[in-house]
Amino acid sequence: MPLDTSTYNLALLRVDGRRWNELRRINAQIRTQAAADGSSYLEMGHTKVMCVVTGPSEPGPRRGGVVGSAGGAGGGGGQSKDAEVVVNIVIAGFSSVDRKRRGRGDKRTLEMQSTVANALAASLHIHLFPHSQINVSLHVLSQDGSLLAALINAATLACVDAGIPMTDYVAACTAGSTSTYAANDESADPLLDMNHQEEQELPGLTVATMGDSDRVVALVCESRVQISRLEGMLVVGVDGCKQVREILDRVVREKGRRMIDEGTVEKGTGLNDMDVD
Amino acid sequence: MPREVEPSLNEKQFVLQALQENLRLDGREIDQYRPLELTFGDQYGVADVTLGKTRVLAKASAEVTVPYTDRPLDGIFTIATELSPMTSPAFELNRPTETEVLLSRLLEKTVRRSNALDTESLCLIAGQKCWSVRVDVHVLSHDGNLIDAACFAVVAALRHFRKPDTSMEGGVLTVYTPAEREPVPLSWLHSPFCITWSFFGDQGEIALLDATWVEEQIRVASCTISLNRHGEICQIAKLGGTPVDAVALLQCSGVALTKAKEFSTYLDGKLAEDTKKRNKGGLLAELSAENDR
Q: Using one digit for the tens of pLDDT, what is the confidence trace for A64-77?
């Protein structure tokens, strides 16, 4: 392994100088593209993601080409009684260090697309929009760990911006554990929000929760880890998701306040009880 | 693209209502698997797994090839999954559906990325020759819980598989036929098994193991946990769906560990049985000069 994380035990500081329970800086904006129904830009540390949401709209010709097929809950074709969430992820060639070219059929990307789509569908009220399609397209501009978490957060923000009714924010973050699976020591500390270096070397998982609750929408672990570590990692991850949710909420409220100040929107009656300013 | 027929509204309600009362259509317990059956083929590396009406065939094979240039010291190990129209009319050839992509990704993560097979041992001459081990997974019949059955079949096939013995003398590589030298097993590090939980109800409060196809069509979320008998998690995938309480997920992982241990003992037993069958009387019988007169 190229990187030596064994120094963690000396100062309890991670490679980038964080403590175990610190998130990286999250910077987010919504309504970044004027033409789109909803859009967002999110940075988690050096991971940078852009999201554009179109819809709910009539299904495009690409997927709705088959006419007369029976309606199904998960199926395409816009014949279903629920709106279909279609996610498309584009990972830019310049986003990581090694400039690897990923084709359209890359299974890892396809898996992430389906994860983001299913996680969003859990929160969005898709039953309100029958025979329609919500298009979410995500662009990865820079990768530095916690990619899936950043994608889910950006997609949530963009859906909020698009004004699609949803239960709550789907907030995601990663959690890891110091020392690799081979070292079976009980003193291993959980880590919050892993960067690329830590992801390469340490076991970790991505958690997405529904709003403020402890309820897990998505849980993805791709590394070998002792089952006894799972609990610690999950607790830290869920706690991190709550912090992320606060940050996302602040971004949305901040944007709303600014829009009222600018006079882009009228201050509605329901907004009186909201802390505007 | 033909679509799978969905269960009718009545059928859905019936199954759900029964589940609320802790009953399953086939009378199983909530955490009970359907009878798992494993048969090995006459050849090495063929495993046929039936789990209720789900049937998966896995075949391992090996050939000598050139290693990838960026990994000159590693052998090649691939898992190929194929869902043919024979399984269900919803599957088409050469057009991977979401099910197929997720299945192959899960197998990849469970078996390949967890280093169950030591790929370095497949290297013959660094940068020039290596073994390429390939497992083909054929789904013969699909009645739910494809993932667990397929993963079990892959692990069983690989552990049963024997590759031809080789030797290096003075820079010359010799690959021996089975008649010349007994084929050797792969260098296997640990056996991971997939255990899939399906969740039902508005809050995902009902958790089932080994869902049948009808149950799978109705479930609101699923979570696949892969672990080996040492309690090492190789992979967890709850890819969206209705949110489930974190504590419930932890409990699920605990039960999954006991199931993985059961699978492991079952597979070890079957392998031992098969070795015994192939090797009648053992080495002593082979070396004996006695003849029946």
A: 333 322 223 344 44
Mark yes or no for CB contact B237/A220 under 8 Å.
yes
> For residue A219, what is the enclosing H or E element?
strand A215-221
DSSP state of A166: B
Tell the residue number behind the tokens 């988690």, with chain if given. Answer: A44
Q: Global pTM?
A: 0.89
∠ CA B74-A220-A98, rounded to 5°? 45
Q: Are B73 and B51 in contact (CB under 8 A)?
A: no
How far, CA to CA in Å, does B105 sit from each of A63, A195, B202?
A: 24, 23, 28
Phi, psi of B43, rounded to the nearest 5 degrees: -80, 160
Question: From chain A, which residues contact B within 8 Å (Cβ)?
Answer: 66, 69-70, 72-73, 75, 105, 107-108, 110-111, 114-122, 181, 205, 209-210, 213-228, 230-231, 234-235, 238
HSE on the CB side for A98, CA within 13 Å? Answer: 5
Would you say B255 and B27 are in contact if contact means Cβ atoms under 8 Å apart?
A: no
B235 contacts in A (CB within 8 Å)?
221-222
- Please give the single-letter amino acid code of residue B280: K
Q: Give the number of C-alpha atoms closer than 13 A to the C-alpha of residue B116, restricted to the C-beta side.
A: 32
Decide if A83 is inside a domain. Answer: yes
- Give the CATH number, domain containing residue A206: 3.30.230.70
Please provide the DSSP assignment of chain B as one string.
Answer: ---PPPPPHHHHHHHHHHHHTT--TT---TT-PPPEEEEE-SSTTEEEEEETTEEEEEEEEEEEEPPPTT-TT--EEEEEEE--TTT-TT-BTTB--HHHHHHHHHHIIIIITTT-B-GGGGEEETTTEEEEEEEEEEEEE-SS-HHHHHHHHHHHHHHH-EEPPEEEETTEEEE--TTTS--EE--B----EEEEEEEESTT--EEEES--HHHHHH-SEEEEEEE-TTSEEEEEEE-SSS-EEHHHHHHHHHHHHHHHHHHHHHHHHHHHHHHHHHSTTHHHHHH------
In a domain, A185, yes or no: yes
Count A/B contacts: CB-CB distance under 8 Å. 118
- This complex has an ipTM of 0.88
pLDDT beyond 60 at A183: no
Q: Please count the structural domains in chain A.
A: 1
- Out of B103-117, B124-138, B168-182, B274-288, pick the least confident: B274-288
The residue type found at B68 is Y
In a domain, A3, yes or no: no
Give the range of the structural domain holding residue A96, as residue numbers without chain letter: 15-275
User: Residue A214: its chain B contacts at CB < 8 A?
Assistant: 245-247
Residue A182 in any domain: the answer is yes
Q: Do the Cβ atoms of A177 and A201 come closer than 8 Å? A: no
